[in-house]
Design a protein that fits this description.
Helices cover 39% and strands 8% of the residues. The protein is mainly alpha-helical. The chain folds into 3 domains: 1-39, no CATH class; 41-149, Rossmann fold (3-Layer(aba) Sandwich), CATH 3.40.50; 153-196, no CATH class. The strands form 2 sheets. The protein has a 3-stranded parallel beta sheet, with no helix packed on it. Strands 4-5-6 form a 3-stranded parallel beta sheet, with no helix packed on it. Strand 2, helix 4 (104-110) and strand 3 form a beta-alpha-beta unit. It is globular. It starts with 41 loop residues before the first helix and ends in a 23-residue tail after the last helix.
Amino acid sequence: MFHDPELSRTTNGTGRIDSQPWQGMLEHVRTTKEPHQPIPVFSDVLDILMDPRNVNVKLNLDCKIENDPVRLFDLVHAALKEYEDWQTRLAHRIILGLWHPKFIVPALDILPFLPRYAISMSIPEIRKYFFNTCQGFSIRQECRENGKNVCVWTVNGREEMRECARWGVKSVISDKPAVWMEIKSEIEKNRKRALRPTVQTYVLPFLSYKNYWFDVERAAREETEYLEREGGKFENVVLPEVSMRVAKPADLLA
């Protein structure tokens, strides 16, 4: 379980993670920040999710484009099967975050019980490739009208987190979960006071270039170029007519 394709940014290791074996190599890598931690394997994370204290915790499984979809989802499925009643106790809490449409059909075939969330900075691509096959998105009004969830990433500023709460999004992905939990606690105690707009609410968006349309379009274009360079052209993926709903264990008995 690792965010970057390479080890050097956050660990004492070097090189691409997919070119190195676990035994004798990756198992000994540690984070550079204290407390120095090993790289967790998927079963480590599943053990945490299965702890009775964590029954309400959900996991966003960020499916990086460097992975082969079938191999990745076969490995995920094999790990999940080790847990009793995983279809009812685990599946609905593990979200498949999909960047490229070539992951959609393998997800439907191999992991139909897991929710599928589209990850993208391009609304046109969301509508074209993901809207009819995934449950969660990063756009708002159109999703609400179609009964789909809206999620946002990566949100680290306090005022940005509050703005997300004002929008009514389903979830916030952050590098600073403790800050988000603190704000959620404030909202639960007194929503009106916690989300009352301030000067920062109106001024901050104008102070960052990332909030202007030209930078959003640039970032979306660069993201698509990277995804298609690593995973192939979006337009080459043939998507079947499928049901948008997530499969249920009872479907196996139908």
